[in-house]
## 1
Amino acid sequence: MPSANAWYLRCGADEVGESAVLVGDRGRVLLAADMLEDATILNEDRGLTTATGTHAGHRITVSAFGMGAPIAAVVLHELAMLGVKRFLRLGTAMTVGDTELGEFVVAHGAVRNESTSASYLPLAFPAVPDLPLTVDVEAAVSASGVPHRSGLFATFDGFYTEMFETGSGTEPVQDRYASLARAGVIATDMETSAIFVAARALGVSAASLCLASVSGLTNDKMPHDERVAAERALLETGFGALSAHAPIAA
Ligand SMILES: O=P(O)(O)O[C@H]1O[C@H](CO)[C@@H](O)[C@H]1O
Ligand SMILES: O=c1cc[nH]c(=O)[nH]1
């Protein structure tokens, strides 16, 4: 049963679409608002900027959570309570194995190395995306012309301790990345597995499409201008995936 108003997002069920895009950076919400038709910014509380607009006849809400699984789950949970049925994470990720900077990466599942998802379902439960939505994402990615690959993600809580070689973590990060690559992991991020598990627990669909923007091998970043252009392409591709079928009648 949709709730009337969301605690932190401070918006109502009539202000959100049937689908939502979850991004980290609020700048991506502002960019999305420029790209959608008739977009309205709903709130900017706690940096959780949210906008709703239309793409090819579909109402889409775009929400920024900042960084990390706990707050991403809060945003997803509130939007699900408002009645949003489909979620697409559009973010950046770090490369693992053969993945190259600038590629789009689509998650077929995610290693649950964060703690938030366990507050929804036990660790034995797999973090897997919604299959039909992922098929639509892969079709949109193929049409985008951007080099891409699909595979497993690994999601971590510790940015400096688990994803970078700072010496503060419990094992050499490069050893961890090498074993993840051998097991089919193509990218790491900080939210995907939590979003997949929370979505299953809440009875909504979720998928994850990211831009590989930082090298897990060297920690090199994509050049700024290339990343900005690629993030626009990421949003366009995600909106295309969410608009792949006729809107469901209200
Ligand atoms: O680009 P976004 O969506 O913020 O995602 C990635 O970027 C942040 C870390 O740099 C984390 O939130 C990570 O998952
Ligand atoms: O280094 C990075 C880049 C993007 N996303 C991450 O989680 N880490």
Note: The mean pLDDT is 95.
## 2
Amino acid sequence: MSDPATNPATDPATLAQYLAGWSGDDPLRRAVAETVEVLGQAIVEIAERLGRGELDGPLGGAVGRNADGDSQATLDLQAHELVLAALAGAPVAWLGSEESESPIALRPDAPLAVAIDPLDGSSNLDTDVSVGTIFSILPALPAATPTALGGAARHPLLQPGSSQLAAGFVVYGPHTALAVTLGAGTQVFTLDRAARTFRRTRRDLAIPLGRREYAINASNYRFWDPAIQSYIDDCIAGAEGPRGENFNMRWIASLVAEAYRVLQRGGIFLYPRDARPGYGEGRLRLVYEANPIAFIVEQAGGAATDGVSPIRSIEPHALHQRTPLVFGSRDKVERVARYHSDPPGLGEASPLFGRRGLFRA
Ligand SMILES: O=P(O)(O)OC[C@H]1O[C@](O)(COP(=O)(O)O)[C@@H](O)[C@@H]1O
Ligand SMILES: [Mg+2]
Ligand SMILES: [Mg+2]
């Protein structure tokens, strides 16, 4: 897979052009393309609102609580409303949003379901750190009985991530970047603010290998499982430890910003389960955070697991369900799984094995 930095002057594909080229005359693809495009319009609005900072009032500050008990900022709700309004005419039957306890019924006969985190990382709003939007597009199954969410019949929003037709995430940073996959590679578009248009700036992105960088909230160390503790211990031990090389650490506390960094320069991200009350399945949500990120990362040659199993193989049972999440360069993600499968005391960190070469990657 090639990874050229694309020059918009010679590769002027706008998001709309890229979507049109991909969809052709296929009705389901056209529906996906239309939906990504209207989400793009909502994203432009959210970017403009964020770009005004506190000129129109406070961005952060809790105004309520969502279904998961997280506090909601004014902008969490505004972003949700902008997405809802943008989807009004789209071929979407169901919207599942972090900011709505239950799925929202849109057009009953439409072929798609959208799951979205309208504003990711919103606890960072008042510090002007990058936040984002994450979305997943699924087929709306005709046989589903949506009122039985969580029951025997499967709601379209509760399909495993392997059913996704498209996924995207945005970083509202110094520039607004949109990473998208339609199952045919990962593309990055940059918002041309003056034209209110996304233009492709990276084509068929491939996560670079070899970057020795990990991202984890290290303040939770004492609550982690031994496998995660061992993995991080070995990174921290650096050149003197079993890995035999030094590692750098990053933690922005903004999933989209971490995911974008991993896409651009490699490394690994971990938000594992831990022993704090309420963190038995980690913090991040499977349906509208982990699944779309996993699809995009895999389409860029990387991997995403819950530590052991591929994220996209997990059968969701609830819209707001959490999952441990590990993603990044494939070799590093696979190494984390091996720390889980090695018997305690015989892992790579074991003094019995010291700097054994078997798992050096
Ligand atoms: O504060 P913590 O525990 O480090 O968690 C940070 C994580 O929580 C999140 O902010 C969760 O997303 P929301 O802001 O949408 O709830 C992620 O962006 C980030 O990776
Ligand atoms: Mg989030
Ligand atoms: Mg959010």
Note: Residues 27-51 form the longest helix (25 residues).
